[in-house]
Amino acid sequence: MEKISYVIPVYDEEDNLAPLYEQINSVCEKIGTDYEIIFVDDFSRDKSLEIIRKMAEKDSHVKYIAFAKNCGQSAALYAGFQHATGDVIITMDADLQNDPADIPEMLKLYGDYDMVTGWRWNRQDTLSKKLASKFGNRIRNAVIKEDIHDTGCSLKVMRASMLKRVKMYKGLHRFLPAMMRMEGAKVVEMKVNHRARHAGVSKYTNLKRGYEALYDLICVRWMQKRHLKISIRENNVGS
Question: What is the CA radius of gyration of the chain?
């Protein structure tokens, strides 16, 4: 592991960015590996972009991409992935519900695995959101033959070379473990901390999330069944 790229989608999180930046920096000092923090502003309506610009002026580790219109979480992640220069990419939400303090323990599993995905063991969300997530994960695992308890957890550690081969479409950030496995990744889940929102409001509703996830689930199952598994016997075209 030579360099870590933190990729963080941002949409109207002006009150969460400063404490998140401080917490990530604190963890980076403990890890001791070179790093960059890439904020991808998804056309925020508040002062998020202004705050990110000021961070970047003061700290060369801070990079940012600002969308010209709201494109959604999958697009923000994909843009961050393609511009990341680290060999390891770590994703998390900007709302402070993920805890950067979990990252050192997740990195202990990285290497034996190409992807370490967080499992929010004690979710600090509403009961309806927790029940909807549990139901959705069961349906998802049954259809695409997965064993992930909490694919919605944004805290993930991933091998960049594999992740950059994943073609993202709207909504597919919820299926990253399955998409990484299609690229040959070994995936493991780790229980992580989950905190109540520090400020701001959630951008999702159960109805919207459920409708989109069902549509995406059908597409992912189709991709799994049609995924090319090429095994070359011999060649003379070079590596």
Answer: 18
Note whether 43 and 68 are within 8 A (CB).
yes
Residue at 134 is within a domain: no
The distance from CA 32 to its chain's CA centroid, rounded to whole angstroms, is 22
What one-letter code names the amino acid at 47? K
Please provide residue 181's backbone torsions phi and psi, each rounded to the nearest 5 degrees: -65, -35
Residue 135 lies in a domain: no
Angle among Cα 53, 193, 206 to the nearest 5 degrees reads: 80
**Amino acid making up residue 178:** A
Provide the domain count of the chain.
Answer: 1
Q: Specify if 213 maps to a domain.
A: no
pLDDT tens, the chain, 239 aa long: 999 999 999 999 999 999 999 999 999 999 999 999 999 999 999 999 999 999 999 999 999 999 999 999 999 999 999 999 999 999 999 999 999 999 999 999 999 999 999 999 887 777 777 787 788 888 888 888 888 999 889 999 999 999 999 988 888 888 999 999 999 999 999 999 988 876 776 666 666 667 777 878 888 898 888 888 888 899 899 76
Distance CA 161, CA 183 (A): 10
User: Residue 12 — φ and ψ, nearest 5°?
Assistant: 55, 60
Q: Write out the residue range of the structural domain in which residue 162 sits.
A: 4-125+150-203
The CATH number covering residue 67 comes to 3.90.550.10
197 within a domain of the structure (yes/no): yes
